[in-house]
Specification:
It contains three helices and twelve strands; from the N terminus they run E-E-H-E-E-E-H-E-E-E-E-E-E-H-E. It is an alpha+beta fold.
Length: about 180
């Protein structure tokens, strides 16, 4: 059986945390255009590379952060994971403390969630298109590859990974990832 995990940032006590939004980032309508491009709702031509800052000596020792919305990947994490983004994700450039990093762009999703075998809470029970929260998920594994990172249409902005991705990240010693079993 293929194991699937929700990908979240790790929560170690010594992991640096987001400190500040760097001046010079887009605001207002310009930020909205950048966000829409990152979320796959606008052309990448609308994307302005975002700049993030974490004030901590060890910030570059980690490979994955979540900045309240954008998820950031170090260069080495991005290059390792790029072949496994499939039809759901791609990478856009950003910086963290003036060092090149990556953020995800939502490209699509895989309609592989089996509602009847999952434990789900919907925003509107009469309309099962948007999941508010879940206890357990079931996926149609015939629609997935291993290794693969993927999204499902019903659960917005939540990244899932197969066992192969988890293994790759652990074997390469990348820091900052937490894999939560969901099946």
């Amino acid at each position: 059986m293929l194991n699937v995990y929700q990908v979240r940032p790790s929560i170690e006590d010594n992991k640096p945390d987001f400190d500040s939004w760097v001046p010079g980032n887009p605001t207002g309508e310009d930020y909205d255009a950048t966000r829409y491009a990152r979320e796959g709702n606008a052309s990448t031509a609308e994307y302005f590379p975002l700049h993030f800052r974490i004030i901590h000596d060890d910030v570059q020792k980690w490979d994955f952060y979540e900045m309240g919305g954008p998820k950031l990947l170090s260069q080495r994490a991005g290059e390792l994971l790029r072949p496994y983004l499939g039809p759901c994700l791609s990478l856009l450039p950003c910086t963290l403390n003036d060092v090149d990093w990556w953020t995800f762009r939502w490209e699509g999703s895989i309609d592989c969630l089996i509602h009847e075998e999952s434990e789900l809470r919907y925003f509107n029970p009469a309309n099962r298109s948007r999941v508010m929260d879940f206890e357990k998920l079931a996926f149609d594994h015939t629609l997935l590859h291993d290794p693969q990172l993927f999204l499902v249409p019903e659960i917005a902005r939540t990244i899932f990974a197969t066992e192969g991705v988890k293994t790759l990240i652990e074997e390469k010693g990348l820091k900052g990832f937490r894999f939560i079993p969901v099946e």
